[in-house]
Amino acid sequence: MKDLFAIMKVMFVEKKDIALSVLCGFIAGITAIGLFSLSGYLISKSALQPPLYTLMILVASVKLLGIISALSRYGERYFSHRGTFTMLSQLRVHIYEKIEARTPAIFRQFQSGDLLARIVGDVETMQHFFLRVCYPPVVLMLVFISTIFFTSFFSFWLTMIILAGFLFAAFLIPAYIGWKQRKIDYSVRKSRGDISTQASEFLYGFRDLKIYQRIEEKAGQLQEAAKKYEAEREREGIHKQFAESINIFFSLLISFAVLAVGAYFVTTNQLDGVFLAMFVLIALTAFENTRGMAVLPSFLEDNRQAAIRLNSIFTEEKAREWGNARLQLEKSPFIRIEDVSFRFPEETRKTLSNVSLALPPGSKTAIVGPSGSGKSTLMQLMLQIFPVYKGKVYFNEEDAIYYSQESIWENANVVLQENHFFYGTIRDNLAIAKDGLTDARMEEILAKVKLNHFQLQDRVLEKGANLSGGEKQRLAIARALLKKAPMWFLDEPTSSMDALTEEAVYRAIFEAAKEDTLLLITHRLTGLEKMDQIIVMEAGKIVETGTYTELMEKKGYFYDMKQIERSVFYHG
Question: Which residue in 8, 35, 145, 19 sits closest to 83, CA to CA?
Answer without folding.
Answer: 19
